[in-house]
Design a protein that fits this description.
The chain is mainly alpha-helical and 684 residues long. It has 27 helices and five strands.
Length: 684
Amino acid sequence: MNLPQDITSSTGRYLRILNFCLLATVGCVQYGYSQSNYIDSLQQIASLQKHDSIEIQALLNLSNEFLRKDIAKSKMYAFQALKVSNAIDKDFGKNGAYIYLVAVCQNEGKIDSAQFYLNQAYPIATAKTASPKMMANYNQSAGLFYKNLGEYKKALPYLLDNLNLLKKEDEGRAGNLLNIGNTYINLGDFKNAATYQLQALAIFEKIGNKRGQSFGYHSLGRIFLELNQTKRARDYYERSAALKKELDDKRGLITTRTGLGDVNRELNQFNQSEYNYSLALQGAQEMKLQTEEARVLHQYALLDKKMGNLAKADEKMTRSLALAKLSGDSTMTAQVRSQLIGLRLSEQNEKQIESSLISNLNTVINSGDRGAEAIEYSRLSDYYAANKQFDKAYEYEKKYEELKDTVQGSVVVLQIRKLEEQFETEKKEKEIALLKKDKELHQLELSRERANVAIIVVILISVVIISALLINRYRVTNKAKRILEMERMRNGIARDLHDDIGSTLSSINILSQLALQTNNGESIKYFQRIHEHSGQIMERMSDIVWSINPNNDSFDQVIVKMKEFAGEILEPKNISYSFEEADAVRHLALTIEKRKNIFLIFKEAVNNAAKYSEGSLITIRIWVESEKIQLSISDNGNGFDAMTVKPGNGLKNMEARAANIFGTLQRTSGSGAGTSIKLEVPIT
């Protein structure tokens, strides 16, 4: 794993400490926006130049984003973050800026500058006020710095120490596990490498970090390639490449295309291998990544050598050696130098060759790279065999076979395959557990739905029962009301018959006896009165029959009756009248009691106006206002003084009838000003 790829994992965790505050200011979330929108938002915040923590965080995030796309821009933003951090004395900003500058300078091959910035970060990370996260970031940066120099034994303790600082299963711990695994790959300890890589991959998959997953797949590809499991290696490299394309990780694609080129080379797929190396080399040159360019050229030269293009191989290996020296990677420098020696055996002095080979062997032994160590034993064995020093050739061949068995033996392969199977098994077990949980949740949901259905059914049944009870109660109440109404009507009819008709019949009876006992002309007077009383009886009987007739339930029939009565009373006396009724009145449905009493009050008022007012015009109006029937009867007659004239039986009867139907009766009159009677009766 190269530096920018590793350091992204380590610093990404720290650089997202304030990320949510930053993203809230921007008004969007990184994963909700496209990558270009996210970068635009960060640049917009940085352009405000508020010189606060949010600006520092934005600049650090920009350096992080461009670390894998544009080294020059990543360096620019890191320096800007350092400048603002120094101005407002923010240690977290200084720490982050120095870490990014270590990564940038090492990728540019400026090892002294990278070492300088790493030294600058140390006192900040170890200060009493520093957070554990800052120390974790320093350890990660230092570990990766020494790892990329080929000093794997020196790098490993920094990374292992971080396991005690990064205990939460997030991208910070996963990135650290990934880098430990990569270091073990370089040390040739593939079992440990696979253990840590699979742990990292499990966390990345759990939290949905696609970039981390792409790193994990790439590292597993490296392990299987080292173990000559080329098909398994290709599968992991292709998974890694697919994710890196999706994420537009140009930096990561360089290393993965190189890995695919290695796989194609081992499978003798030379055209495909050359295609992948060409793309990787082009990417490294465009991004000006000297370390990556040196590695791609080295692998590309091995392809030329395998194809028999020794001149091309020598040219690429020479360029690779120059770049490896600039990068400061002693292990890669030794490997490239050994390859060149192999290419130029016939052109060099034997002592120089032997000295160079032994020097290269010592270099890789010091670095801890057991895979490279085995290769150097093999080269020394070939060298001594070519010079017929078979005892030494056998000695180094034996060392090569022993170390190869340790590093790449079938036991190691089986152990790693077992680890891989355990990882897949655990993954499937988790998936099964999730399915079981989903099934349980589904069962709970079904139970809840059944309970809801049962509740709904109970509610519906209850509603039906309550509705039936209410309907029954309504019917009973209505029936009781109708019975009471009938009783009131019967009582009213009985009262009317007793009071009006009964008393009138009694008068007729008395008058008829007087007429029979009288022989003179006075009998005519009695018969006249009998005639009047019998007419009254007929009229009152007609009113009673009319009031209880169901055909007259509509108030429209009351109005017709009123008009007939007004015409019969007023026209013979040459009294003009006007009758105005509103349309809303005609369709009202009233009880028998209200209908009868309204008509009788009207009748009494018109009678009084015709008999006593001596007026020439009577105005009758009926309308609805404020949910009440309004009846007004006015004349232009003599009127009377309400203070001096006592009300007679007719007026008292009208007031009593109004009270019976919960209405009010108003009488307005004055001498010479006519009389007005107004009745208000509630509709309901």
